[in-house]
Amino acid sequence: MNRVLASAAALLSLAACSPGEPAPGPGAPTVAVADALCRPTPKGRRVTGCYMTLTAGAADRLVSVESPAATLVQIHESRMESNMMMMRELRDGLPLAAGETAVLAPGGNHLMLLGVEEPLVAGDTVTLKLIFETAAPVEVTATVGQPSVSEYDQAAPDSGS
Ligand SMILES: [Cu+2]
Prior knowledge:
10 strands; binds copper (II) ion; mainly beta; ten-stranded mixed sheet; 1 helix; Immunoglobulin-like
């Protein structure tokens, strides 16, 4: 018990040694985001999917996403039901295991932009702000283009919604 108190005190004094440090210090949980990509919006439609990889340093959860390019961003999962690719919103967000890379990709989990203001064409960029349960928000710039994984394209549930 005394040892626990002593180390807690040591930590506190360490923290006190760097008064200029902002609150999220080196030990603060972070999520690394890479390869952010949004599909061009289909002609005449205002929805599209975005993909990326997320690697959380500590167990966390992607709870919501915001983008100035869309009125709403949802976190979706895709699943096969009766031979149809269906997607639905993950209302509780996307759990992220510590140290593991969560892949958002066509045919799997993805972000859905709804109410896209301007048509997105290849070469555009989209700003996405990812909000996590624990880690600080991460703002990423996704490029607009076709994902290289195309095996699911024909099954894309786009026409269903
Ligand atoms: Cu979707």
